[in-house]
Specification:
Number of strands: 41
Distance between the termini: 37 Å
Shape: globular
Strand content: 35-45%
């Protein structure tokens, strides 16, 4: 079966999967002239090479790609294939268990894809306690590609304190791409070049990957990646605890060198090292870059300690750091950079003076350091970040944020708890009418869906005060959705269809204000002979006599049309 679309003057030629799809004994082919966006799960139950999924993207464009925001479930032995434009098709081997994951060592140039989540907790007892054997080493590197298809590898254990290049992939050289995969609750112990996903990467691309766990090593230790050379890391993050007894220790990557680049990525957790210790990157080498990045990691080190980068020889652009810094002397502990060399540059970057406990952005600065310290209150305001590319004001912007409630966060963040805020929030972002809540979960604006609460129960007082990126779309969705998490049990049907869900006096006061304003407009149109003060008085009466619902609903109907 083939689903196809084509570009035209009015249509971009994209295929978006917005509802779950399950099929059996055949191959489903998605052919798009431009992009394929998987926003809901795709599941094939077939088990042969005649079953599975083919993604054909960018068939008539040069910029199309495929994006996986929800898992693709495939059985072992079935087919997964991708094709970019007129290039030849790429066929992947499906992995559905931890033994097959380990067997990648048998073919280090192979193409692999995860067909399901994998429980790797049994690896802690493998090899007399040494655990999982990293895929690839410096003599025989992994040079294939690995497509996670949105799946999670949980409980991976590696305990090899005397070995270098330690991670799920020990050493990757020329790997086409490693991405769309999550590592959860990983325990990784090695010597040098240690990371949860990749120990050392050369000429490798890591895209949409994340890791959580405990990482321990000596030099070049990172939460996701230990050492990178001529490599690219995009739209990735790491959380957890990273400890290095030596130097070049970072929350995301330990050592980023030789024309490598990290973008649209972040780290949070705790980072500890002896020197060159950063919340995101321990050492950023010459001609390497870190753009659209941030760190909320608490950092402890002996020398060259930075909230974002410990030692910078490269370029840092559009970044910020908030984690608490400790251990180093004031001379080499900076809110953003511990040591900024003569070749190092920092531009459009910020740090929180209060949460970091440091008043200097670049502790030792021999290069160019354009870093601004902010108070915590100011850090929640968009205007505090001049030069940041906020979406939607900037159509291609990399940053997003709820003005007054959160620090900036990346558009590449898909469905994560917003932790970099004074209080998590839920509400109508489009007008900034958001109220504090203990914890909320949001979907990314990149998904082109209303920003909404994803959990099952609201932990705050009002049940769901939901909002949308587009007001008209939000109005339509309020009419459509009748699920428990988008309304309060004690609301009348009229209230459920209004464009704001109201739960306290402040919101009722706002309704009256809207009703008065709308009432004045209506009265101005119908009775232009009345003086303005009489029109205001009549509008006030309309509100307090309970007619505001009628006015607001008329306004809603007009907007929907």
């Amino acid at each position: 079966m083939t689903v196809t679309t084509s570009s035209s003057d009015t249509e971009p030629g994209d295929i978006s999967v917005n509802s779950p799809v399950i099929w059996g004994s055949h191959v489903l082919t998605l052919r798009a002239d431009n992009n394929i966006i998987v926003n809901a799960s795709l599941t094939s139950t077939g088990t042969t090479g005649s079953d599975g999924l083919i993604l054909q993207y960018a068939q008539t464009t040069s910029s199309g790609t495929y994006t996986i925001n929800s898992p693709i479930n495939l059985a072992a032995g079935s087919l997964f294939q991708t094709q970019n434009g007129s290039s030849g098709p790429i066929t992947y081997k499906i992995i559905t268990d931890v033994s097959a994951l380990q067997n990648m060592n048998a073919d280090l140039s192979g193409r692999y894809a995860l067909g399901s989540d994998i429980d790797a907790s049994a690896t802690r007892n493998w090899n007399s306690g040494a655990g999982f054997a990293p895929v690839g080493n410096s003599s025989n590197a992994f040079s294939g590609s690995f497509e996670g298809l949105g799946h999670v590898v949980s409980g991976l254990s590696i305990n090899r304190p005397s070995e270098n290049n330690v991670g799920l992939f020990g050493y990757a050289n020329g790997a086409i791409i490693i991405g769309n995969v999550s590592l959860s609750n990983a325990s990784i112990i090695g010597n040098n070049s240690v990371g949860a996903l990749v120990g050392a990467a050369n000429s490798t691309t890591i895209n949409h990957a994340d890791a959580n766990g405990t990482i321990i090593g000596n030099d070049s230790v990172g939460g996701l990646l230990g050492y990178a050379s001529y490599s690219l890391v995009t739209a990735s993050f790491a959380t957890g605890v990273v400890t290095g007894s030596g130097s070049r220790v970072g929350g995301l990557a330990g050592n980023v060198d030789n024309l490598s680049a990290v973008s649209d990525s972040y780290a949070e957790g705790r980072v500890r090292g002896a020197s060159h210790v950063g919340g995101l990157i321990g050492y950023l080498g010459a001609n390497s870059t870190a753009t659209y990045v941030y760190s909320t990691s608490d950092v402890t080190g002996g020398a060259y300690v930075g909230g974002l980068v410990g030692y910078n020889d490269g370029a840092v652009v559009e970044s910020y750091a908030t984690g608490k810094l400790s251990g180093g002397s004031s001379a080499d502990t900076g809110g953003l950079i511990g040591y900024n060399s003569a070749s190092g540059t920092v531009d459009r970057s910020y740090w929180d003076i209060e949460t970091t406990g440091v008043s200097t952005g670049c502790a030792t600065n021999l290069g160019g350091c354009s870093a601004t310290g902010l108070t915590t209150a100011a850090a929640l305001l968009h205007q505090s970040y001049p030069g940041f590319s906020f979406w939607p004001a900037v159509p291609w912007g990399h940053w997003y944020g709820i003005h007054g409630y959160t620090r900036p966060f990346l558009r590449s963040e898909y469905s994560t708890i917003i932790r970099n805020s004074s209080a998590s929030i839920d509400g109508d972002e489009s007008q900034g009418q958001l109220r504090p809540c203990q914890q909320s979960r949001f979907r990314s604006p990149d998904r082109r869906q209303p920003l909404r609460y994803v959990g099952h129960e609201q932990p705050c007082g009002h049940r769901v005060f939901t909002g949308g990126l587009d007001r008209l779309q939000f109005l339509r969705n309020i009419r459509r959705r009748q699920s428990h998490d988008l309304r309060s049990r004690d609301q009348s049907p009229r209230q459920r269809t209004s464009w704001l869900v109201r739960h306290d006096k402040r919101q009722l006061d706002r309704e009256c204000w809207l009703a008065r304003r709308l009432g004045q407009r209506k009265l101005l149109h119908r009775r232009p002979d009345r003086p303005e003060h009489q029109r205001q008085h009549l509008a006030e009466l309309l509100c307090h006599r309970g007619h505001q619902w009628k006015l607001l609903r008329r306004w809603t109907h007009r907007l929907e049309r």
